[in-house]
Amino acid sequence: MSESTEKLDVIDLPKDFESALKELEEIVQSMESDVLSLEASLKAYERGVALARVCQERLDAAEQQVQVLQNNLLRPAQIEVE
Q: Which residues does UniProt call coiled coil (predicted)?
């Protein structure tokens, strides 16, 4: 795979979790069906690794957001007494 093709593959990666996961599931199904050649399987595996990385990054970001929300919501309320 040339450097320009590698860059194109990275640029073409889905930005959202759901799209990346759907494509990853499709790759897994095609690899499990044994219809891919060795070269196609290697390319699919490489793409799958990149998609898995996208999914993990989105999950990590969501986990950080949940932690921030929990920290803000779990603080004792400060009520001003007049």
A: 21-72
Q: Provide the percentage of residues in the chain whose pLDDT is more than 90.
A: 55
pTM: 0.70
Spatial distance between the Cα atoms of 50 and 26, rounded to a whole number of angstroms: 14
Q: What is the C-alpha separation between 82 and 77, in angstroms, rounded?
A: 16
Q: In angstroms, how far is CA 80 from the centroid of its own chain?
A: 44
d(CA 67, CA 52): 22
Cα–Cα separations (whole angstroms), residue 39 to 32, 49, 67, 78 = 15, 15, 42, 62
SS3 of 43-62: HHHHHHHHHHHHHHHHHHHH
